[in-house]
């Protein structure tokens, strides 16, 4: 009964909220420099499905409902909830942490769970509509209780800074953007502490093929830099007395000890997107394939692709409407 | 929450937002006749002329106004006094914005009216005070946002394209209409 009521309430809310634009997504990952008009709200629902680890089967849905609010015309704040939905069974014992989490050979991991939340702000410095190019700056904090890769319980806090650039051509019908996001993550699991610095760089181009319709292309690079501290390994061969792997440099962003560690994994993706907008709402869909990837000797990389941090394909869908 | 419930709720939420597409109408502010009366007063327009610009004229207007000329046709009406009434479109975020512009017989902007605005935000460009910034302007000066024309924060794209549109039309008068 409670489930039915919940379903009814969710659906009714969705139906009533039919009234939907600034900051709308034209791609799966890349974003433009627009901020929301002062006093306006926007609801967004986005999902990225990540598929394929090069071993067995793997599917992961990263679902995020989000509310954005324009504090001023130049400053937008947002809050989003994070839901993870994992289903996988991998064959290769070296594909970690998936193989262990699923219960080793022939095991399977299925879980749908609330995974955390993110709070963010975006400040617009230059407008692509009247300045030589658009520039916005973003800051965000994310709290996670579930690990994105395998769905296991973790304790993770991360802070990130993003630079958004946008340059329009052909009377704003051809939009190009570049985003550079640097994330500082502190992740704790029993016996392991990871301080990771990750870099995400994306490029997007979208053309208005007809009123309301944009068709685009997107490139995304993501890499991480870390040396996990495995306390149980302290003093063992290949590890120092604190449990750091001797052949990797560690990342640190403590005050007075800032360093970028060894690159552990990297992945490069490329693919198309399509965007449709009505006056009050918009929808975007896109697909990205990993075109190249790799990492350190400890990463799971095969045939020029990386599969422990990265996947074969990302399918993105997002929807937004305005209050 | 088990997998089935999770997926069911997520699907229903998504479907609820996407499927019942509401019929949203464009905001129509004025008819053509109302716009003409507001801009030029109770004057009689001559027969409509659909102006077809040659490639050379388009290039020339584009070069002089520093604004792209996307269409080679323009709906125009002349008055007995030699003033012009023009129906035009400029680019909005998703769709075009219909505008009507009146030019005096010496090429100065007599008025602008927003006929149809189809975007969620930026309708402040219809505010009389903002539009009044264009009155009396002509092709001798290329108008720019934040210089001669005040930008409307939160409606920058619409402000920019209407400003560009006026530059294009005053130069269309200078290059073509004044000779007709």
List keywords for this structure.
heterodimer; A: 323 residues; mainly beta; 12-stranded antiparallel β-barrel; two-stranded antiparallel sheet; 2 helices; 17 strands; disordered N terminus; B: 180 residues; alpha+beta; 6-stranded antiparallel sheet; 5 helices; 6 strands; globular
Q: Which radius of gyration of chain B do the C-alpha atoms yield?
A: 20 Å
The beta-strand count of chain B equals 6
Oligomer: heterodimer
Low-confidence stretches of chain A: 1-22
* Helix/sheet category of chain A: mainly beta
Strand content of chain A: over 45%
Average pLDDT confidence of chain B is: 84
Q: Strand order, biggest sheet of chain B?
A: 1-6-5-4-3-2
Q: Overall 3D geometry of chain A?
A: globular
Low-pLDDT runs of 5+ residues of chain B are 16-25
Write down the overall geometry of chain B.
globular
Q: Describe the sheet with the most strands of chain B.
A: 6 strands, antiparallel
Biggest beta sheet summary of chain A: 12 strands, antiparallel, barrel
Our count of helices of chain B gives 5
What is the helix fraction of residues of chain B, given as a range?
A: 25-40%
Spatial gap, N to C terminus of chain B = 74 Å
Record field, number of beta strands of chain A = 17
Mean pLDDT of chain A: 89
Helix content of chain A: under 10%
What does this structure look like?
The complex is a heterodimer of chains A (323) and B (180). By secondary structure, chain A is mostly beta strands. In chain A, 6% of the residues lie in helices and 58% in strands. Chain A is globular, with a radius of gyration of 21 Å. Chain A starts with a helix and ends with a strand. Chain B has 180 residues and is an alpha+beta fold. In chain B, a hairpin with a 4-residue loop joins strand 4 and strand 5. Chain B is globular, with a radius of gyration of 20 Å. The model of chain B is unreliable at 16-25 (pLDDT under 50). The interface between A and B is large, with 51 and 44 residues.
